[in-house]
């Protein structure tokens, strides 16, 4: 039975709806003119302007510091949380609580953390954003690693324990290598989320060290410029690369156990 070509119309229309704004943004980032809305010719002018903007350079450095620190925290805690939920405390209620930060509105998390920091008299700065992003991204890492755990070969862990290996040795030599693709994919996801996260950072950062999304927000108050388009295109490329890399690692990890079978 032949499929009607009309069935492909809503499919491609959905893709156009999702990605047309992104395509327009990338095209306009190569605009040679100073208008962000009319294309006057192809040029790399605004990418060169980015390199000379001190605000953007400082914001990028702060963002990388926050993303790197929060990724380490989220990867360690998320992996431990996933293993604990899958191996030691199996409960749908605990699963829901662990993944709740991933579905809560960023506004709620940001306000809650601001109130907590205020109650603890915790001075705001880059470290407060690192902790906030680490908490937020832990749920995503746990979800990715938990998915990888469902395909892990538990018989290897049982054999390791039967041969006299302790829990730590079994985890480091058996469980951790099996989870490595999922852990790396979760870390890439955490880094990407922190890289362009705005709301939580806005509520939990001080006045002296703004991250790149906050710098972009302050620039947007005076209107969209081709320089912002160029910066957004670079961030898009970084995020796209990280997502594709994480997806590939997840597929490689899924093929590993099947190949052993």
UniProtKB/TrEMBL annotation:
PROSITE patterns: ABC_TM1. Keywords: Cell membrane, Membrane, Transmembrane, Transmembrane helix, Transport. The chain crosses the membrane at residues 7-30, 64-85, 97-120, 126-145, 183-205, 228-246. GO terms for biological process: transmembrane transport. One of its GO terms (cellular component) is plasma membrane. Residues 60-246 form the ABC transmembrane type-1 domain. It is found in: Cell membrane. Belongs to the binding-protein-dependent transport system permease family. CysTW subfamily. The lineage of its organism: Bacteria, Bacillati, Actinomycetota, Actinomycetes, Streptosporangiales. Its main location: membrane. PANTHER family: PUTRESCINE TRANSPORT SYSTEM PERMEASE PROTEIN POTI. It is a multi-pass membrane protein. Pfam families: BPD_transp_1. This is Spermidine/putrescine transport system permease protein.
